[in-house]
Amino acid sequence: MRLILLGPPGAGKGTQAKMLKEKFRVPQISTGDILRQAVKDDTELGVQAKAFMDSGQLVPDDVVIGLIEERIKQADCETGFILDGFPRTIIQAEKLAETLTEMNIAIDTVVDMEVNAEEVVSRLTGRSTCSDCGVMFHEESRPPKVPGVCDGCGGHLAQRQDDNRETILKRLEVYQESTSPLKEFYKKQGNLKTVAAGGSVEEIFSRVCEMVR
Ligand code: AMP
After folding, report:
1. Catalytic hit among 2, 18, 36, 88
2. What is the whole-number distance in angstroms between the Cα of residue 188 and the centre of ligand 1?
3. Catalytic: 123?
4. For 22-33, what is each residue's pLDDT tens digit?
5. What is the model's pTM?
6. pLDDT of the residue at 176
7. Domain boundaries of the chain, sorted by first residue
8. 2-115+177-212 — its CATH code?
9. Whole-Å CA distances, 18 to 15, 48, 70, 116, 191
């Protein structure tokens, strides 16, 4: 399975990617997670990326393209992968296509997760993530049993730096401008499938699974 999850911030790409990874036993590759880890570890990459991420802008194409090229060549990606949050620009998509051709492989399906902007703002402002295992909670739709503590592993729940109203609106604007043209790009290639990303996590998961089998 070689899959791309497309969709605005808050569509649930990360949540669905984690569930798909368990079901299909292929790695989830999230450029957002890789970059956040680099910021946390204070590496050169993290220092380079932080200001872009905090302001809701995209990290430069050459930086993320380099990351992905290195990652998809690793042994655990041989049987497939789920790209979550990449590509986000036409340049990234073109470069990915080139790399995959060189590797003699191709993307099977691109799932576009559709959700409206109002829903995105409400999902993201109430969201918190476990700093240890990465599981996500929401103050209304999926509150943790003990506030601030992960139900699964007991880790500390933190709000993402960029999950504040102002930055969310900027991220949505960037999505419209730079990422939404990818729908047309993949539609032309004939592998775009659109899923309504409203409802419960489980409902969305069963719709996504229908599309990727
Ligand atoms: P995400 O966790 O996917 O919402 O990504 C968080 C932030 O990381 C984004 O707002 C961007 O600043 C950066 N980022 C993640 N993936 C990419 C990408 N493919 N291209 C450029 N920037 C990215």
Report:
1. 88
2. 24
3. no
4. 999 999 999 999
5. 0.92
6. 95
7. 2-115+177-212
8. 3.40.50.300
9. 5, 27, 21, 22, 22
